[in-house]
Amino acid sequence: MYSDYLKNAPLALSAEKAELIIQDMYNSVVNDPNExxxxxxxxFMRNAxxxxxxxYGWCRLSQEERVSSDAGxxxxxxxxxxxxxxxxxxxxxxxxxxxxxAELPYDQTAEDEWKLRKxxxxxxxxxxxxxxxxxx
Length: 136
Fold this sequence. Notes:
By secondary structure, the protein is an all-alpha fold. The chain has helices spanning about 1-10, 15-30, 35-60, 65-95, 115-135. The longest helix has about 30 residues, at about 65-95. The two termini are about 25 Å apart.
């Protein structure tokens, strides 16, 4: 399953790279004296959980169920992307060095927005996986 994802998914994000990105994200938030940024990370993590829950069940849905659920899935995905971007902007505003935002395949053009959508969605699923395993 994982090896198929790495071979076949366009712009697949490896677990190793996701771990580095997530660790840098956590470190950048810890290094920011602005307490509100910690809340932004919590918002992103909460949205990651919601998105991962939807994505987990997606492959088990019929085509009809997917069509009827697509607007809700897209809304959660948009919320996830919004909190990802807001967290990045807050760190920039606070002058906190962070590399994680530039690690995902996105060059800020409308044609490439799908790359960011896929990458942040994958990152969210890894975050849920890693945090779930750490909670053991």
